[in-house]
Amino acid sequence: MVKSGVMSEISNDRFAKEIVARSIDAIVVLDKDSTIRFSNNALHQLSGFESNELIGSSFSNLFPPLDKGEQITIESYLSAADEGPYVAGFLKELELVTKKGGFVPVEIRAFEIHSEDQVLYAAILRDVRERRRLEEQKNILINSLKKLAYMDELTLLPNRRSFSDTLQKTVATVKRRNRDSVLAVLDIDHFKLINDTYGHDIGDLVLKKMSNIFVDCLREEDTVGRLGGEEFGCILPDTTTEGAAIVLDRLRESVEAHRFFIFDNFYLNITVSIGFTKVHPIQKPEEALKLADIALYQAKNSGRNRIQVYPI
Question: Of all helices (H) and strands (E), which one includes residue 273?
């Protein structure tokens, strides 16, 4: 059991002042006119202002004006009796103005202090820069993971999952707006031979360069993705099969004309076979892919380095 004398000693003003002085949170006490009457060392370190610069000044000097030019008042951050989960006041975040003209994000909790014949206000300000930094890192990581879930790691193109989602949206658009769109499947000719002869590192270089050629040859609104291995998919919205034939043959010629650098002065000449089909509104995405694959298979059987439309 704690002795009453000890309790009295602990409640002494000297102890309270010592606790406030050593607090890692900034503390400021204001009168009813929002004039600063007390500030602790943490606030001086956080803001750069000394005690004599703060005492007697307005609380609003520590914060930039609101959107409409209105000055910050402590009443803005007081909680009603039934408001907020904190006993010590309503929690908000704002920017603290430093002496050097910078800004520090802080979390503020404000509450009333009833002292004899006057009402004072106290505000506890916590530096949240580190928390914000960690939140930003977390958001960057989450966005990176989301991106990786829909991106082929080698070519940085949309992966099969992402491409399938886009194809499904394309089918829905064709059905809703009655617009022509074309799906193509592209396959690098004799790619297994490249891997077996020069190794998978060279094969990876070919895949990455091939991806760049595809992107350069297509429009911004077109979608090209890696479906797996040496197979790529391409969606050409608002395009007829006749128009697609021109675009895809031009792409095939670009690949054929490109000299793929391997090492030293050694280059490879590589070709691509392409099968394509019109996207129909009553099709499922996998059905459209199957038809484009049939056309691709025909292009391969007909000698490779060519385009083929379905129906054949």
Answer: strand 272-278
- C-alpha to C-alpha distance for 196 and 70, rounded to whole angstroms: 72
| Contact partners, residue 242, CB within 8 Å, separation at least 6 | none
Q: What is the C-alpha separation between 137 and 297, in angstroms, rounded? A: 47
CA 220, 223, 225 angle in degrees (round to 5)? Answer: 135
Q: What's the pLDDT score for residue 84?
A: 47
pLDDT tens digits, residue range 184-241? 999 999 999 999 999 999 999 999 999 999 999 999 999 999 999 999 999 999 999 9
Task: Report pLDDT for 148.
Answer: 78
Residues with Cβ < 8 Å from 12, sequence gap 6 or more? none
Interacting residues of 24 by C-beta distance below 8 A, sequence separation 6+: 42
Number of helical (H) and strand (E) elements in the chain, helices listed first? 10, 12
Orientation of helix 200-217 relative to helix 191-198, angle to 10°: 140
In terms of Cβ atoms closer than 10 Å to its own Cβ (0-12, 13-18, 19+), residue 52 is: exposed
Q: Which residues are catalytic?
A: 230
Return the pLDDT at 68: 63
Residues 259-300 have pLDDT tens digits of 998 777 888 999 999 999 999 998 899 999 999 999 999 999
In terms of Cα–Cα distance, which of 246, 232, 248, 251 is closest to 191?
Answer: 232
CB burial class (10 A; 0-12, 13-18, 19+) of residue 255?
buried
Distance separating alpha carbons of residues 130 and 55, to the nearest angstrom: 28
**Residue 92's pLDDT is what?**
81
Instruction: Concatenate the DSSP letters of all residues of 101-150 into one string.
Output: S-EEEEEEEEEEEEETTEEEEEEEEEE-HHHHHHHHHHHHHHHHHHHHHT
Question: Hey, what amino acid is at 276?
Answer: F
Contact present, 202 and 156 (Cβ < 8 Å): no
